[in-house]
């Protein structure tokens, strides 16, 4: 669709923010480049937000302003845009997107998911925190976990406000900025090592039937700020109730700011409905000597996209990304990761694995590692392996290392394969039949990532999940 | 349960000792044999022969095989006959086809049989899937066992052991019961208990890999063990450990086919027969004296031509 045809759809552009009067002229110019579809969606989101909280905090106001500003010139991505070359978002685009109202999420007395977590947790239903379902045990002094609008500490508010994002994500990032009703803040003060892992549980309850055009959207937004020398382990879970066939769209953003010598361990499990859209941003800033470890298992969503962006802002950082995606049905699992190293002596290890076990299943991986001029003595490794278990299953992978610095150690590898013949034979030679051997090898493929979850309980949960999903597939073969 | 608590203390014929060979076919030993066979759960425990002539175990006739992918011919008419309780050694230069022969016996898909036959315990081995061969008591210790990341040694052994129990119509062992069964076996190969929690062969040293193969043999038992270069890459201590372990598993009824291209193994073993393989054929068969000629004059002296 050309811009001129787009413009013909634009009889009148309503500017998405109330505060925009001062910049009307420049916006008119931008407006001519706007995508009417995007603007309509932005308006819908904005209307729902202003109904919910008439007087936003300065942080939120700024976030909404910058986001809606960006949306004015952001078209809906098409397959012609490189980041979406293999990721078809028309399922979202063609839907009638409706923000979930606050009121429909607070009356739940229990969750439609198993209550299996013993970890301190904050429970978020369709983007809204539900206190009665959350269980936050006491954290060390100075730690804050909760909504920005409930934050009383001026000093923390001041620190948080320094990080209203100036990061340029994509359309979905900005839609979240406009649609997020509040921000969940996790603040860890200087030198504080939080022992217990914190679980952030996101549950999608409102969903439409599979064939309905309506698509309820939630826009959770989280900011994790860990000051110098602090440490925390965060378990971020997205699920969608027990009947796993509802349609909804979770459009989530997590920002992580890791101070000098601080450490964040981030576990992420996504098991949403196979008719849902799950779009997720994880944007990380790492100061010198800091460490960030991500371990991910994603199995849910009809369309699931995780964008991971890690930016180094000081030397001697350590970054470990271990991710496992499973496409068990007619679904797409997409990981777009970008690691930008601008300072000396960074260390990074990335492993991405995926299994596609359905003839209509797809997996996409775009893994970019940039080692820029000043990032001397960087040690960066990237490995991706894909396992296709059905004839027409597809995977599109694009590992790419961009190295400008000259004194660096970088390695990468990519393999798409069936199971190793020699390994299968080893099982058979010990009397194990080929089906059982295949099962064992497939689980071991996933185990390499699962065993990196720092919490045993999370490991167990992920193992159980994979078993439950894969066993029926493997037995039916 | 008691039945499956194998006792490896009974060693009527210490395979690896340099001492005098005795008692292979003595009647009283036979009785013990049966018990010992059951105790390591070799699936063939139904044979209750009472002495007499040893039974034919393996008969390979004019066996030829090619590499599946390239159709390159590797085995060019191998003949070999083994009776129960015998120990055969196959020697030969690197590349002569020894490992290929071993792998063909256990049904490796890299090779395609183009001629000849293999009869094992009266059955056509070539008609059997690899796992059926294993369950029929064939065990091969690989020259270079493959690493299996993500599968722990104990889970692997447990799976294999349960496959065998199913075949025997016995209930499977859960992880805890199995642990109780397998833990004492580690002593046999002189390994620490944490060996069980490591992933199969992953990051193992050469010696550890060989010990692990023998541990599997100890856990699963076998009527015919094919040991492909269990001696290569081992220092003297490791070699002694491995030899001792194989020794401990030996009964007068189960048979061993040893593959090596070093003479060094023969310091520990006095085999029934030695075969020399050359260019995909067994070119000479004889007793230990062949080894002595080899020692003095090298392979050239016994070349089939
Ligand atoms: N899977 C295979 N692919 C290619 N070549 C092979 C394969 N297996 C064996 N060969 C070749 O066949 C010959 C015999 O190998 P092998 O049986 O391993 O010999 P040995 O064990 O006596 O050293 C060698 O030349 C070897 O390179
Ligand atoms: Mg060999």
From TrEMBL, chain A:
Q: What is this protein called?
A: Protein ABCI7, chloroplastic
SUF system FeS cluster assembly SufBD N-terminal domain location is: 58-198
Q: Which residues cross the membrane?
A: none
SUF system FeS cluster assembly SufBD core domain: from which residue to which, for each copy?
216-445
**Matches recorded under InterPro entries:** Fe-S_cluster_assembly_SufBD (IPR055346), SUF_FeS_clus_asmbl_SufBD_core (IPR000825), SUF_FeS_clus_asmbl_SufBD_sf (IPR037284), SUF_FeS_clus_asmbl_SufD (IPR011542), SufBD_N (IPR045595)
* Origin superkingdom: Eukaryota
TrEMBL record, chain B:
The record's listing under InterPro entries reads: AAA+_ATPase, ABC_transporter-like_ATP-bd, ABC_transporter-like_CS, FeS-cluster_ATPase_SufC, P-loop_NTPase
**CDD domains from the xrefs?**
ABC_FeS_Assembly (cd03217)
Looking at the UniProt entry, the stretches that span the membrane are none
| Gene Ontology MF: a single term | ATP binding
Question: Keywords assigned by UniProt?
Answer: ATP-binding, Nucleotide-binding
Q: Where is the ABC transporter domain?
A: 58-304
Q: Name one Pfam family in it.
A: ABC_tran
Name of the protein in its database record? ABC transporter domain-containing protein
Whose protein is this, by species?
Penstemon smallii
